[in-house]
Amino acid sequence: MSGRITEQVIEEIRARIDIVDLIGARMTLKKAGSAFKGCCPFHHEKTPSFHVNQEKQFYHCFGCGESGDVFTFLMKQDGLSFTDAARLLAERVGVVIEEQHDEKTHVRQLLYAIHTELAAFYQRCLRQTKEAQAAREYLAKRKMSDSLIECFGIGYAPAKPKNSILQWASKHNFTPEQLVSAGVLCPPREQSAPDDFYDRFAGRLMFPICDRPGRVVAFSGRLLAERRNAAKYVNSPETEIFTKSRVLYALDKASSHIVKHPRREAIVCEGQIDVIRCHDSGFNTAVAAQGTAFTKEHVSLLKRYADSVVLVFDGDSAGRKAALRTGTLFLEEEIPVRVAVLPKGEDPDSLLRDQGPSVFREALETADSVTAFQIKTFHEDEAQPDSIDALNRITRDVFETLAGCDGAVLRTRLLQEAAELLHLPYSALEQDLEKYRDAARNRAAHAASFKTKDTTSAPNASAQPDHDLDTDEGRQDDSQLDVLSAKPILKPPSTYEQSLCELLVEHEHDLAVLGLVEEFLPEHMIEHPFAKLLVRTLAEQRRTGEDLLAKLHQTAAPCWLPLLEGLLTHKHKMLGAKEMTKEDAARDLITRIWIARIKQKRDSISPSSTAETDAQRLTLSTLMKKLEMLPWESACLMMRSELQTEGYIHDASGA
Ligand SMILES: [Zn+2]
Q: CA 41 to CA 306: how far, in whole Å?
């Protein structure tokens, strides 16, 4: 447990903050009926399904199911603990929190205090000490203005006298051991010299690294003059308040600009100086990974703010490789990613410094998609790019980049572009990519099946224990795997089915919503037994006029009670019954559930490639794509005809 905050204080914060102000400051919200609507910050979308209810001080996304209040919004979006979110809000509305701290909170607060004080100390040293002259000259040479230096808190860690950091510490009542835990000092190497602490950053130009709310949590120190056996950059080690993969340099400054960018587009650079220069030149959506390559965690962090990304990496071969690797990570999260190519030998810093913002802006605007970048790079490197073996290599590379992208629209778009650049028919590439993806999935399923067999205590057994155990290689889907584990714990419905249940309960007496579900989601299209039960109950309720939902408590199997209670408690927090777009929400969820069912059906086709299985896969892929792209008016006609003709997906769940 971290510091405790009383219920009274939480209520006071709630009373003083308005959820529409809080969320509206970070994204565009438009009034729609009694609620406010916007594009969801938690999943990628073009049409807004994120609703904020001012009256109930609650948000809910009909696309991904995220919901909550002011506290959960900050926790989710900024990756904060409840205490930190409460503290931040309290500060904002002027509520005083008296906290009781435990040991861990105490340590974290000490580390924050050390970093804050130290950052100020380094800045003073840069401005005032004679020793920092070289640092000041370096910054002047790189055209770093005073305001820029101040904005990014750049400082200098003194090397003389040797124990200056210890003097500073004792003046501020910090012990050397505390500075060791902050990663600033290294402990003495020799037992014989217990006071010989080593200053990790002495003599370096210091860049403070901040977390999302802007607290200094680490430092990066740059060498000013070549020194033997010394790295150009030294970073703080990971501490209680600093995890490399969870911090993006300058995200504290960039996030508010990213969400206001017309495409919600972030610029990702390689180095701190590049980022600082970008911000200085008006490109204030720039961030960089900190002391490590870009990770999945970084992508998820950035995804909270950005809908698209443009990478600006060095043009050398290491930089290109890094750009592709990073681009693939973004595609896996269905984030469109482009790669800007700078003139040879330039980085964002040098380009902006020497040629001004217009050349850089052009590079950003003309940036290619990651696949086009991959193909163009390949063409530059390859002596005979049109030979058959070169074509094979490049298509395989492109598949590798695209395989992990589950967003069919994005994937299709990129593949179309690849087909044009490679002068190949789209259908051929599409078939091969689907094969590639199937093979990758089978490998993953196969690997997972071994894992599950190893850990029989995995707590996720399926609700349907009547599956045949199919031990064919690669044929084990999740529900079958679950049967292998011993404990029968029920799986929750998929996100979409859960959202549908919420929508249905919220609008239990609304004929339009239930009508849509009844028409387009007959029982065999719904996967989860509880969701089926709920739809059946509501249909029955409508026919008989009896209050069956209320009675479900007594009639439903005990295993469904937690789900039911969750829905009923949720109900009072959900959007008002006057919500304008409940039908749209229902249509959207119906379409998504259809797509999920078709995908399941497609994935269940034997992985062997015969004319028949290939054709089946293609048909189902086409169906998915159409449902994804067509407006409801056309999509519902397709669904209707599928249901009437008992077409391709009829036995999707019956099988
Ligand atoms: Zn969402």
A: 8
pLDDT tens-digit readout, 540-556: 888 887 778 877 877 77
CA of 306 to the centre of ligand 1 (A): 13
Q: Where are the alpha helices (DSSP H) in 455-557?
A: 478-484, 495-506, 511-520, 529-544, 548-555
Whether the pLDDT of residue 97 is over 80: the answer is: no
**Pair 527, 597 in one domain:** yes
Q: Which two tokens stand for residue 516?
A: 């849509």
398 dihedral zone (left: phi>0; alpha: psi -120 to 50; beta): alpha
For residue 270 the two structure tokens come to 């390689």
Q: In sequence order, which residues have a C-beta less than 8 Å from that of residue 295 and are 6 or more positions away?
A: 245, 289, 329
In what helix (H) or strand (E) does residue 561 lie, and over which residues does it extend? helix 561-571
Give the pLDDT band (50/70/90) at residue 489: very low
Residue 452 and residue 517 in one domain: no
**At residue 612, what is the residue type?**
E
- Split at pLDDT 50, 70, 90, the class of 557 is confident
Number of compact structural domains in the chain: 5
CA distance 652 to 655: 6
How far from the centroid of its chain's Cα atoms is residue 519's Cα?
A: 35
Q: Residue 450's domain spans which residues?
A: 445-484
pLDDT the model gives residue 571 = 54
Rounded to the nearest angstrom, the distance between the alpha carbon of 129 and the centre of ligand 1 is 51
pLDDT at 4: 62
Looking at the predicted structure, is the pLDDT value of residue 311 above 70? yes
In 8-92, DSSP assigns E strands to: 30-32, 35-38, 50-53, 58-61, 67-68
CATH label of the domain that carries residue 253: 3.40.1360.10
Ligand 1 centroid to Cα of residue 633, in Å, is 23
pTM recorded for the entire structure: 0.60
Q: Which of 208, 227, 242 is the last residue of a domain?
A: 242
Ligand 1 center from residue 363 Cα (angstroms): 32
